């Protein structure tokens, strides 16, 4: 299954990339993540691993499988966690629009747990939830850049991302 989330931000692309490339500090911009534990010795780049701890007590472990500073892109793979997923590969990209605006893209391929029933539930609910939460995370990059404080728990962006 697939969901792609696109959010335009009123900050320079280099600033957005700097925040997203701070791999072990996603809690600054993600409204569901309370803290991150670095797993292993790599802080960033291919092979870096993290555990994202959610406000609701759940968590996921992820590892970087592609890292491209020049093109402001990385790709992470779901390793384990409390989300109802067998697998999940997420690409995060930052594109420059002009000197003060950028476009962030979060492109997710996922396979829900629970077979056919899981696929129906994902079609009805999970895809919409992914779109909403990931849009809020991408908009959270601008929030953090402007306010210099973490996005609050459960924060909803005042602007809606495009979900395709």
TrEMBL record:
Organism: Rhodosorus marinus
One Pfam family matching this protein: Polyketide_cyc2
Entry-linked CDD domains: PYR_PYL_RCAR_like
Protein name: Coenzyme Q-binding protein COQ10 START domain-containing protein
InterPro entries: Polyketide_cyclase/dehydratase, START-like_dom_sf
Residue ranges crossing the lipid bilayer per the database entry: none
């Amino acid at each position: 299954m697939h969901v792609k989330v696109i959010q335009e931000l009123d900050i320079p692309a280099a600033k957005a990339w700097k925040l997203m490339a701070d791999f072990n500090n996603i809690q600054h911009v993600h409204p569901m993540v309370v803290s991150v534990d670095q797993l292993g010795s790599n802080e960033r780049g291919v092979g870096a691993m993290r555990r994202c701890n959610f406000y609701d007590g759940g968590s996921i472990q992820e590892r970087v499988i592609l890292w491209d500073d020049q093109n402001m892109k990385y790709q992470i793979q779901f390793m384990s966690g409390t989300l109802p997923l067998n697998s999940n590969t997420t690409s995060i990209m930052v594109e420059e629009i002009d000197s003060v605006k950028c476009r962030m893209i979060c492109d997710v391929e996922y396979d829900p747990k629970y077979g056919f029933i899981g696929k129906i539930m994902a079609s009805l609910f999970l895809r919409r939830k992914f779109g909403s939460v990931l849009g809020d995370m991408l908009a959270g990059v601008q929030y953090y850049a402007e306010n210099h404080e973490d996005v609050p728990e459960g924060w909803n962006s005042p602007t809606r991302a495009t979900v395709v």
